[in-house]
Structure to design on (168 residues):
C-alpha cells in the first residue's frame, strides 16, 4: 500500500513548501480536505496526486516510492526550486511561492506588487528602447544642414512611415 503521508512529504520538499496547507493548495484542495483524505487513505487523493505529478512532469515512480529522480529526465530545469543557479534567487522564489499560496491578504498584496513592479520594469525598458531609437535618428540626421536661424524641416520615420515635422 502507498503511504500518502510520505508522498505528501515528497511534494512538500520538492516544491520547497513548509506546510501541508501549501501542499493542499498546490493540489487544489483545502487543508481540511487533504487531511481527511489522507487519514481515510482515499484513493481519490492518490488520483489527484498522480494527476498533479503528470502535469508537473514529476517522475511518478519517485513520487510514489521515493526511488529515482524527482523529475522526468530533462524537466528539472523547468519545475523545481533549483531552477535558478543563484541560491538567493531560489530562496526568494520559494518564499514568494509560499506567500502567494497562503490564504492571506499578504498573498493578494504580493501579487499586486509583483504585477506593478513587472509593469514598471517593462515600461522602463520600452522608454530605454525609445531613447535609443531617438538617439540613432538624431545621429543619422547629422545636425542642422540649413545653416543658422532658418526653420528646420526633418522627416522622422516611425515604423517605416515618414512623418513630416516642421519647426520654427
Amino acid at each position: 500500500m502507498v503511504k500518502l503521508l510520505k508522498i505528501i512529504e515528497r511534494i512538500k520538499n520538492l516544491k520547497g513548501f513548509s506546510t501541508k496547507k501549501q501542499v493542499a493548495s498546490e493540489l487544489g484542495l483545502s487543508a481540511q480536505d487533504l487531511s481527511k483524505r489522507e487519514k481515510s487513505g482515499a484513493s481519490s487523493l492518490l488520483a489527484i496526486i498522480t494527476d498533479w505529478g503528470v502535469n508537473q512532469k514529476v517522475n511518478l515512480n519517485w513520487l510514489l516510492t521515493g526511488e529515482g529522480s524527482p523529475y522526468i529526465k530533462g524537466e528539472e530545469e523547468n519545475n523545481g526550486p533549483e531552477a535558478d543557479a543563484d541560491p538567493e534567487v531560489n530562496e526568494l522564489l520559494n518564499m514568494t511561492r509560499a506567500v502567494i499560496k497562503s490564504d492571506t491578504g499578504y498573498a493578494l498584496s504580493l501579487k499586486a506588487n509583483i504585477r506593478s513592479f513587472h509593469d514598471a520594469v517593462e515600461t522602463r525598458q520600452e522608454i530605454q528602447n525609445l531613447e535609443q531609437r531617438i538617439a540613432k535618428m538624431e545621429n543619422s540626421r547629422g545636425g542642422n544642414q540649413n545653416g543658422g536661424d532658418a526653420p528646420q524641416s526633418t522627416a522622422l520615420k516611425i515604423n517605416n512611415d515618414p512623418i513630416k515635422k516642421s519647426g520654427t
